[in-house]
Amino acid sequence: MAKASYASLKLKVNTDITSFTFDDTQIEVLKYLPIEDKYDLVMITLQKAKEDGIYNPIKLEMFFHLHLVYMYTNLSFTEKQKENESKIYDSLKSNGFFDKFLEVIDEDEYNFLFDMVNELVNTHMNYKNSAGGILQSFVQDLPANAQAAAEIVKSFDPEKYQAVVDFATAANGGRPIKGAHRNLSLVDDGK
């Protein structure tokens, strides 16, 4: 079999666009987004939609579609506008922009990105709930938890603890408080 040179194909990334009109404004939509940009779109969507270790489905919906608009269209937003992405999403959604945009964006591009977001969410959640994920989380959290415990031990003042015990005993009519020991030394001196 004769080899063919990649360079001889003279290929370039497809930069074709389609367009639609929205409120007398021509909106251009890329037919193809380079793979590195696709990766960024998926990862930033996941990052922004993650709350307390899980993915918020409402935020996944919002950020996925906003990032599609940011990366596939010629529609520009100021940094100030992007400070309130919920407002941008609501404006685009409630005025039918997304409906028109989704009619024009390449179906294969959309499906690929949608599937990647969902696959990564499922993979992450399955791993997080696996023994390996739980162990990794424990190992990652261990130094911080050990440091916090060391700070508590370091800042423990036996005299202040004794003062609290004495106050509680006095408030209890002079009767000892269950579980509170007067002797704070580690050696039992018989008291």
SSE inventory with pairings:
Blueprint: H1 6-9, E1 17-22, E2 25-30, H2 35-49, E3 50-51, E4 54-55, H3 57-72, H4 79-82, H5 85-94, H6 97-104, H7 107-128, H8 131-155, H9 158-171
Antiparallel strand pairs: 1-2, 3-4
Strand content: 5-15%
Can you list the strand order of the major beta sheet?
1-2
Outline: elongated
Quote the distance from N terminus to C terminus: 94 Å
Structure characterization notes:
The protein is 62% helix and 8% strand. The protein is mainly alpha-helical. The strands form two sheets. The protein has a two-stranded antiparallel sheet. The longest helix is centred in the last third of the chain and has 25 residues, at 131-155. Residues 184-189 have low confidence and may be disordered.
